[in-house]
Amino acid sequence: MTTPCTPLALLACLLGALCRPVHASARDLQQAGEYDLLAGMGAAPAIEEAPAAEAPSCQSQLNYSSVFMPPQAQFAFRLYANGTRNYTCQSATLSVGPAMALLTTTGAYSCHGFFVSPFVGYNICSDPATGQPVGKLTLDTTVPGAVFVAPAPDGNVDNEPWGRFKVAADGNLPPVNYLVRYNTTGGKRPEQCTAPRGEWVLVPFTAVLDYYICL
Questions:
Q1: Domain count for the chain
Q2: Who contacts 101 (Cβ-Cβ below 8 Å, separation ≥6)?
Q3: Are 75 and 212 in contact (CB under 8 A)?
Q4: What residue stretch is flagged as signal peptide (predicted)?
Q5: Distances, alpha carbon 87 to alpha carbons 45, 124, 186, 199, 202, in Å
């Protein structure tokens, strides 16, 4: 039997439908809140990381407190020099002129070193195992910044100073561009010329020569 719906009952039905509680999950509420935030403010931009600082170059780290190379330098090979520093007796006053070295070097390569002028020297190198030529090392002291010398740490004034020099290599040699000379013995310019006018004064000389690539 159907019960007639009185006006009062109809009003109660309508109010019940409007006031029925909404059972929303916490996730629904969170998503709704995120949507409102993004709609009102826009998506936050991605944070870009700052680029890593470039490592300093080898040449920028060269200093004049030591003849040795900075850690960025790439060691290439070592030679042991044994020979003479040769000074000329000048004609006017018999004073000693510039040195012209004659050296034999052993180690990674077998080289014959000599100067073609007071400013330019060569090391002509070969493979010690086969004797085949491998290239030439050039020292040109007229190049700006090519020479930096410092007294030997032991303070012995009879020894040539230690030094760092710009060099160039050709042939099959590694592309070295710096030479460090250290552990020198002898080679010091004599105070007076004891040879006849125009002749040579030969002073025995040894050193360790390390070659580097430094860009």
A1: 1
A2: 83, 84, 85, 86, 113, 114, 115, 121, 187, 205
A3: yes
A4: 1-24
A5: 74, 22, 13, 8, 6
Can you give the pLDDT at residue 180?
98
Which residue is listed with tokens 């019940």?
16
Phi, psi dihedral angles at 98 (to 5 degrees): -60, 155
Q: What residue numbers bound the domain in which 139 lies?
A: 78-187+197-213
* 8 Å CB contact between 96 and 85: no
| Residue among 169, 203, 196, 215 nearest 100 (CA) | 203
C-alpha to C-alpha distance for 122 and 103, rounded to whole angstroms:
10
**Residue-wise pLDDT tens digits, 37-66:** 444 555 556 677 777 778 899 999 999 999
The rounded distance, in Å, linking the Cα atoms of 195 and 87 is 10
pLDDT tens column, 83-142: 999 888 876 666 777 788 899 999 999 999 999 888 999 999 999 999 999 999 999 999
Nearest to 83 by CA among 192, 167, 165, 181: 181
* Residue 180 within any structural domain of the chain: yes
* Pairing state between β 147-150 and 133-140: unpaired
**pLDDT at 143 (0 to 100):** 93
For residue 22, tell me if it sits in a domain: no
Structural domain contains residue 64: no
